[in-house]
């Protein structure tokens, strides 16, 4: 059987290449994503490990919200920890150190320079590996040392003064020195490091003078680090964490890693779609193989091969194709992953780790490539084994009919899916939407063969010319095969329509809210938040002065932060001026009183959290101990502010930055907007991260961020389309080969070449437009259900992206035309006589 | 040059396939006039060039030397487009494999050439043809629901409905049992007698040839015999005689 399989493989080169290509692409994406992640992670790890070379053991406070130590600000430790640690036998020295994200220097241009890494404030210490390139160490509270990379970026020299934002608003410092780290300009490439005098560092970066973010331990000679780690942990108890230098480095690399992993996630999402589309394509290719080989298979059966052998021969073919394609796909993915890593690494300045064969990526790639191919080939293989020996004697292949069971199962799944979507939309259950979406999709996939014929019947009126009519009929000739092609096109369109529907609804909600509900003409925010973990800040004194400005009726700043409320992680908000915010957002108490000392919750949040006035909640913010806060007011839902609002004093102690990160400004009657805007801009000179914007700018900035997501998803669509094109080409080429005799007859009785081309193109366009229409309808349907379910999460507007949907359908039609070009040309060029004789 | 009597003409036609070692001269100077309104059969042993001659006459294949005319049109130097237009407007085909489109009903298959040409059918004529081929109850059926004989009658109707100057049929009964074959042959004969249709038919079967008004014999790419109004016996005698001749040639 092996020889028969190999021979049949080689005799169908084209199909082999086409089905292999889809596997290659899918595997390529998987491999590229994994290789990129592996390479970047190793690069970041290496960079941070060399930065933490000097650290042997380190004590830090365990982050109150748990999870990733890098995502939350460090817990301040005091001198007692240092004392306790130094007493542990085996500790040569214990040193309190400060290192925290959020020290932002203001450049000569009055702006905070771009950062490729974190902006870190540290306590000066020779022990941390810093060497002075110029100047001296910071001694006074208003002295700093900056790293050489930052000095070059900003143009600051020793002796200059510069403003620095920390947990405190802008303060002016004198630069007394410039540091390098083991010869490097940055501690870690791209990082901006500002060193303060030891006592000042705690106050500025951790909010508490004399506090440390870590206690670094030098291990005494002859003491085992691992043993000491356990000993120190034993002395300190569970509140504190002891980690090795490598562990500290890995934690510090966290933010960089998380950027790389979000890129990887996007790429993996792409590969997921590629794999899904590819699976349909492979199923299509192999079912065609089986159809075409029916006679050959029947002959094999007639000659005594049993069903198992026939099935295995098809699966063997799939295995060979998938192994070869996986090899090629993995090799390409390796190249692309490395190239992408170099490009990304180049932009952050991190040296890219050397080449290593990532075993995990290799395994996953091959598992995906071979697994998906074999699974997709299973159904065709089963069908092949069912070919009866007598089929060898039969003339024509019976045209396939869509299976009844399949159609019924599809209809039931589709019905259940729609029911789940409707229920989910009504009840705000996002889980039900997910289940419903998948069920609807699978239902449609199963239903498509039965849909193809009626669907093509619908466009009868559009295909009046004979070639167009024949093309339309040909599209529906083999519903099973057409369905696989249609579905492979549908997937991409469906996903992008789904995302577009949700985002368009969100955008429309934002626009409406800003235009109709926000009683503030000016909004202060940062339109380019840096990659660090510290939010931008607005100097409270500037806000205070603003309120005194003539022309300003009200100004309210706010911040939000992730916190754990009664054991559940969620966003909490804080307003710096409750009265003014209430005026701007029309906050109205339903029960209790609006005030500054207790928690306020909007009605629907209160309902979902089961809160009433007088209830006590346990709130763990990112800093400080857990606090118990009483609910003081439930206010009517507004479209501007909602959620769980803690008193401003809590933000001061528990948020990463005690200052507001955004603010609304309401103009007094008769004030000129441009005039007030200018004056506010001047007041914000000490808050260089934020700018004053008007409503339309806010809307635009929001739209831009969303458009970016839509663009990413559209790239995904494009990838899905490229793979789907392969499917269309495959189907067309094979249909043409099957119909050579017919084409010859048509040409003999007087069909022009261009009419033949038109016939093939119509067949292709009918399939691709059907796929697009199904995708658009399904995507918009699930999207709408999701939007309804998100009503509580603040998407209150329902907007269907009609223009985009139209674009997707037209794009699919164009894809249909492009895919048909080569096959149509081939069909038109067929020599009439050869074609007639082929019968 | 062109005589009004001729539906198609071949003058000293040569057709050579391949080159060098594999060179095969399928036609060696064939001169033949197909008269209008007559049923001409072409016979000859396998490989004698019957199909080739027919393809050349129909403008499906290019010739190497000589002239071919369909009606008053000389095929020499015509582009693919012109040849297609010529076939569309003047020529009909009946193939051995019935070659119907499975996606169309019998009626739609019959109307296909007219649809392709963008012409609307003459209703009376269409009705007459449909009644002649006896397919009225089957018009809405698809080819897979028809027997071989019925399918070939659909193909005949398809060729007859546009009233081409000449219909070429290559072994139209080759795939049929003798009874269905007789039906199709009677139909072709009737369309010549009653409607004045011109038909050229290639066949191996002496019985089939006896339906024709004239039988032309080919051997080795040359015309070696020409009978008018033959009956089956005469055709068989001629075949036997020609076989004996060629055996004699080979023996010599
Ligand atoms: N495309 C081709 N290439 C090469 N040789 C060809 C080709 N077509 C036909 N021939 C040769 O030309 C000769 C005549 O072939 P043709 O098909 O006309 O014979 P025929 O009389 O129709 O035979 P049959 O009764 O078997 O159909 C044969 O020797 C054949 O091998
Ligand atoms: Mg022949």
Give a written overview of the molecule.
Chain A: InterPro entries: ABC3_permease_C (IPR003838), MacB_PCD (IPR025857), Macrolide_Exporter_MacB (IPR050250). The complex is a heterodimer of chains A (839) and B (252). Chain A has 839 residues and is an alpha+beta fold. Among the domains of chain A are: 57-243, no CATH class; 417-517 and 697-839, no CATH class; 538-686, no CATH class. Chain A contains 25 helices and 22 strands. In chain A, strands 3, 4, 5, 6, 7, 8, 9 and 10 form an 8-stranded mixed beta sheet that branches. Chain A has a 6-stranded mixed beta barrel with strand order 14-15-20-17-19-18, surrounded by 4 helices. A 4-stranded antiparallel beta sheet of chain A has the order 2-11-1-12. The radius of gyration of chain A is 33 Å and the shape is globular. By secondary structure, chain B is α/β, with parallel strands linked by helices. Chain B has one domain: P-loop containing nucleotide triphosphate hydrolases (Rossmann fold, 3-Layer(aba) Sandwich), CATH 3.40.50. Chain B is built from 8 helices and 10 strands. In chain B, strands 6-7-8-3-9-10 form a 6-stranded mixed beta sheet, sandwiched between helices. In chain B, strand 9 and strand 10 (222-228) form a beta hairpin. Chain B is globular and about 55 Å long. The model of chain B has no long low-confidence stretch (mean pLDDT 89). The chains are: A alpha+beta (839), B alpha/beta (252). Bound molecules: adenosine-5'-triphosphate (ATP) and magnesium ion. Adenosine-5'-triphosphate (ATP) binds at residues 17-18, 24, 26, 44, 46-52 of chain B.
């Amino acid at each position: 059987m092996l020889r028969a399989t190999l021979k049949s493989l080689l005799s169908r080169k084209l199909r082999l290449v086409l089905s292999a290509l889809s596997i290659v692409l899918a595997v390529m994406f998987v491999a590229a994503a994994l290789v990129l992640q592996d390479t970047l992670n190793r690069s970041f790890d290496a960079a941070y490990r060399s930065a933490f070379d000097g650290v042997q053991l380190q004590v830090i406070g365990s982050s109150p919200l748990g999870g990733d130590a890098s995502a939350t600000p460090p817990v301040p430790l005091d001198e007692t920890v240092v004392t306790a640690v130094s007493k542990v036998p085996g500790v040569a020295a214990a040193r309190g150190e400060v290192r925290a994200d959020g020290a932002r220097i203001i450049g000569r241009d009055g702006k905070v320079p771009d950062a490729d890494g974190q902006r870190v404030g540290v306590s000066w210490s020779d022990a941390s590996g810093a060497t002075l390139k110029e100047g001296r160490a910071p001694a006074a509270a208003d002295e700093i040392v900056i790293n050489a990379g930052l000095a070059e970026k900003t143009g600051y020299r020793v002796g200059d003064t510069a403003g620095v934002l920390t947990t405190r608003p802008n303060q002016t410092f004198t630069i007394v020195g410039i540091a390098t780290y083991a010869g490097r300009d940055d501690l870690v490439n791209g990082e901006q490091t500002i060193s303060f005098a030891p006592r000042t560092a705690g106050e500025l970066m951790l909010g508490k003078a004399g506090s440390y973010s870590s206690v670094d331990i030098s291990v005494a000679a002859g003491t085992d680090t691992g043993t000491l780690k356990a000993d120190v942990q034993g002395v300190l108890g569970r509140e504190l964490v002891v980690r090795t230098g490598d562990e500290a480095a890995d934690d510090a690399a966290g933010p960089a890693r998380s950027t790389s992993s979000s890129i990887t996630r996007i790429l993996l999402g792409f590969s997921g779609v590629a794999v899904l589309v590819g699976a349909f394509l492979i199923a299509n290719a192999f079912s065609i193989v089986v159809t075409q080989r029916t006679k050959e298979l029947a002959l094999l059966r007639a000659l005594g091969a049993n069903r198992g052998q026939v099935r295995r021969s098809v699966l063997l073919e799939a295995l060979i194709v998938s192994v070869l394609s996986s090899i090629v796909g993995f090799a390409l993915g390796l190249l692309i992953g490395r190239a992408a890593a170099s490009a990304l690494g180049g932009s952050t300045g991190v040296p890219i780790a050397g080449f290593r064969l990532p075993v995990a990526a290799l395994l996953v790639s091959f598992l995906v490539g071979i697994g998906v191919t074999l699974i997709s080939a299973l159904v065709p293989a089963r069908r092949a084994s069912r070919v009866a020996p007598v089929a060898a004697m039969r003339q024509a292949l019976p045209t396939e009919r869509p299976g009844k069971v399949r159609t019924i199962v599809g209809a039931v799944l589709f019905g259940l899916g729609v029911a789940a979507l409707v229920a989910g939309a009504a009840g705000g259950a996002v889980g039900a939407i997910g289940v419903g979406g998948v069920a609807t999709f699978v239902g449609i996939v199963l239903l498509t063969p039965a849909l193809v014929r009626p669907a093509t019947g619908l466009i009868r009126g559009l295909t009046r010319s004979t070639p167009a009519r024949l093309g339309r009929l040909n599209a529906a000739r083999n519903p099973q095969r057409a369905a696989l092609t249609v579905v492979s096109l549908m997937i991409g369109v469906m996903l992008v329509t789904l995302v577009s529907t949700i985002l368009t609804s969100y955008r429309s909600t934002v626009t409406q809210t800003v235009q109709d509900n926000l009683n503030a003409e000016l909004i202060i925010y940062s339109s380019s938040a840096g990659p660090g973990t510290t939010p931008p800040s607005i100097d409270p004194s500037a806000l205070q002065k603003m309120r005194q400005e003539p022309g300003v009726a009200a100004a309210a700043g706010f911040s939000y932060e992730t916190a754990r409320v009664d054991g559940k992680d969620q966003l909490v908000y804080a307003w710096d001026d409750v009265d003014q915010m209430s005026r701007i957002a029309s906050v109205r108490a339903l029960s209790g009183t609006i005030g500054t000392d207790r928690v306020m919750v909007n009605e629907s949040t209160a309902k979902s959290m089961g809160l009433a006035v007088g209830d006590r909640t346990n709130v763990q913010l990112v800093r400080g101990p857990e606090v118990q806060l009483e609910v003081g007011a439930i206010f009517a839902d507004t479209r501007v502010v909602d959620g769980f609002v803690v008193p401003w004093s809590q933000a001061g102690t528990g948020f990463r930055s005690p200052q507001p990160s955004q603010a609304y400004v309401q103009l007094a009657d008769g004030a000129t907007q441009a005039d007030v805007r200018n004056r506010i801009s001047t007041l914000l000179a000490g808050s260089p991260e934020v700018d004053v914007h008007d409503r339309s700018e806010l809307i635009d900035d929001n739209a831009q961020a969303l458009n970016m997501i839509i663009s990413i998803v559209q790239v995904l669509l494009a990838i899905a389309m490229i793979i789907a094109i392969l499917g269309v080409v495959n189907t067309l080429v094979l249909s043409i080969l099957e119909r050579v005799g017919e084409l010859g007859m048509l040409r003999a009785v007087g069909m022009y070449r261009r009419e033949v081309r038109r016939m093939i193109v119509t067949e292709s366009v009918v399939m691709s437009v059907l796929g697009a229409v199904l995708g658009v309808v399904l995507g918009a349907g699930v999207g709408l259900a999701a939007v309804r379910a998100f009503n509580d999460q603040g998407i209150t507007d329902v907007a269907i992206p009609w223009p985009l949907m139209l674009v997707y359908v037209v794009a699919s039609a164009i894809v249909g035309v492009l895919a048909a070009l080569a096959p149509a040309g081939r069909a038109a060029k067929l020599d009439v006589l050869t074609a007639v004789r082929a019968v | 040059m062109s005589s009004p009597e001729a539906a198609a003409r071949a003058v000293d036609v040569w057709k050579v396939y391949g080159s060098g070692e594999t060179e095969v001269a399928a036609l060696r100077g064939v001169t033949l006039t197909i008269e209008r309104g007559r049923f001409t059969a072409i016979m000859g042993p396998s490989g004698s060039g019957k199909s080739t001659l027919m393809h050349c006459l129909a403008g499906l294949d290019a010739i190497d030397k000589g002239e071919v005319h369909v009606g008053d049109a000389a095929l020499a130097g015509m582009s693919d487009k012109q040849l297609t237009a010529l076939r569309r407007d003047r020529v009909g085909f009946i193939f051995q494999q019935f070659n119907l489109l499975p996606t169309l009903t019998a009626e739609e298959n019959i109307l296909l050439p007219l649809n392709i040409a963008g012409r609307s059918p003459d209703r009376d004529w269409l009705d007459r043809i449909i009644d002649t081929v006896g397919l009225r109850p089957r018009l809405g059926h698809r080819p897979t629901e028809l027997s071989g004989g019925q399918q070939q009658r659909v193909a005949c109707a398809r060729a007859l409905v546009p009233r081409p100057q000449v219909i070429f049929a290559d072994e139209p009964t080759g795939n049929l049992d003798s009874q269905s074959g007789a039906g199709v042959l009677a139909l072709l004969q009737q369309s010549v007698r009653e409607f004045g249709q011109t038909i050229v038919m290639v066949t191996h079967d002496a019985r089939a040839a006896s339906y024709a008004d004239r039988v032309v014999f080919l051997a080795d790419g040359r015309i070696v015999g020409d009978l008018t109004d033959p009956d089956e016996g005469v055709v068989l005698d001629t075949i036997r005689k020609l076989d004996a001749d060629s055996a004699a040639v080979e023996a010599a």
